[in-house]
Amino acid sequence: MAKRTFIYGAVILLAANFLNRVLGFIYQYLIMTHIGGEAFGLFNMVFPMYMFALVFTTAGIPLAVSKMISEAVSLQNYSRARSIFRTSLLLLTCSGLVISVTLYIISPLLAERFFPDPRVLRLFLICTPAIFVVSVSSAFRGYFQGMQNMLPTALSQICEQLVRVSVGFFSAYTLLPRGIEWAASGLALGMLSGEIIGLCIIILQYKLQKTKKSSHQDESLHPIQTMKELFHLAYPVTIGRLFSSGLSTVDAMLIPQRLQLAGYTAREATTLFGQLGGAVFTLLNFPSVFTFALATSLVPAISEAAARKQFQTVKLRSAQALRMTIFIGVPSLVILFFFAEPFSAFFKSEGTNSILRILALGGIFSYLQQTSTGILQGLGKVQLPVIHSIISAVIRIPILFILTASPQWGLKGTAVAYVVGFFISSTLNLAAIVHYTGMPVDLREFLLHPLMGGIGMMLAFRLLHPFFSFHPLAFLLEIILGAVLYFAILFLNGGINRDDLQRIPWVGKFLR
């Protein structure tokens, strides 16, 4: 029953994540084609700082809340679960309020001292209240996840994204005649509106739920003791997320500045930075929704097997997760590489096709980094991905600093730096997995089989493209034919077998 509940919850969150990713993809298209890269560049300068403040505010507490409430519910101690929720809600409300007010007061100083474009100030002022809203909302989401009820979180996320897309685009489009900074402020307003609606939806669902009574004497801890437990569970996650958000903030400050040294004006640098985030990384990250699904379904199984000391199962499931990540990542990146020009043009970012191709060449390491991080977390080695990210950043940032400021490289140098970072992080993660699990690295399965499929797919595109270039929509049929050929090659060379197909939910039952 627990397994079925987990699968049911995972499917709900996956469906919501996929829908939100599609909505986000549409949103990015509307922004890049109707608002422009410069407005998104301004917004993208502020967003990492907003995320850094948000991670600092919530401090990984929602995950800790989920774990503690889940343990209390397993003992049918619902009074304790409610006590944990009330304590976390008070804690996150207070921290969110303090950080929001503080950032609002010092926003002029931050905009003047740390950002290459002073037009970000208005965006800062709009974004800071969202920190308070998300902090409160995260307490409710941690509570529902601990109760193994994923539906409220999924519904609130979908409603949040729908409002963000509609209000953000409408506001930005309406305010665009007043100036780029006003259009960017419209995007920030959309984000704030979405977060408010998401909070309202999840509070409503909390009010409508049927509360259960404890089956035995209440064993609730004192609020101070509850806070101590929350912080003890939260700090490892907090360190990793703070580091990741901090790096994004550094990139948001550094890349536009270095582009100006390469010879671009401030507005041109802001536009290029917006195109990097709004077009290039939107395209590169879209396939990760599938690799995220793999990590979501396999990593808990790895954690369970490790706890039971079933080391052979750990090896098998780790290899399976990585192999399927490669099998899905390779065709996605072949598509991005070959169709870089029409994809860039689709987002009105024609000058970024070479940047997309560079990132596509090393994008497989980005996907492997995601899956391998999940595996290490499943093994209880939470600190290793953080250490590996630090090592990667120490090497990546100097490369970005030097190459981005070079007129010969510019944004291409930024892309090269990111690829180097992906490679180092994923390689260190994989080495750690091999060390702790003894997982054998079969180059035929991990490299040769998908490489053969990718080469076949690329050749098919070369042959088919002259016949399908008459209309952009024809590219879709070309991509489908290429993908069919890729998986046919994998099936023929043994990369995918009948057992693999039987593991696919809903599909596998028809092959048994």
From TrEMBL:
Q: Which InterPro entries match?
A: PG_synth_SpoVB (IPR024923), Poly_Biosynth_Transport (IPR050833), Polysacc_synth (IPR002797), Spore_V_B (IPR014249)
Which UniProt keywords are listed? Cell membrane, Membrane, Transmembrane, Transmembrane helix
Q: Name one GO cellular component term.
A: plasma membrane
Kindly indicate whether the keyword Transferase belongs to this entry: no
Q: Which Pfam families match?
A: Polysacc_synt (PF01943)
Where in or outside the cell it occurs: the entry states: Cell membrane
Provide the taxonomic classification: Bacteria, Bacillati, Bacillota, Clostridia, Eubacteriales
Membrane-topology descriptor: Multi-pass membrane protein
Give the residue spans that cross the bilayer: 7-30, 50-69, 89-111, 123-143, 182-204, 276-300, 321-340, 352-370, 382-403, 415-434, 446-464, 470-493
Instruction: Please state what the protein is called.
Output: Stage V sporulation protein B
The reply on keyword Cell membrane is: yes
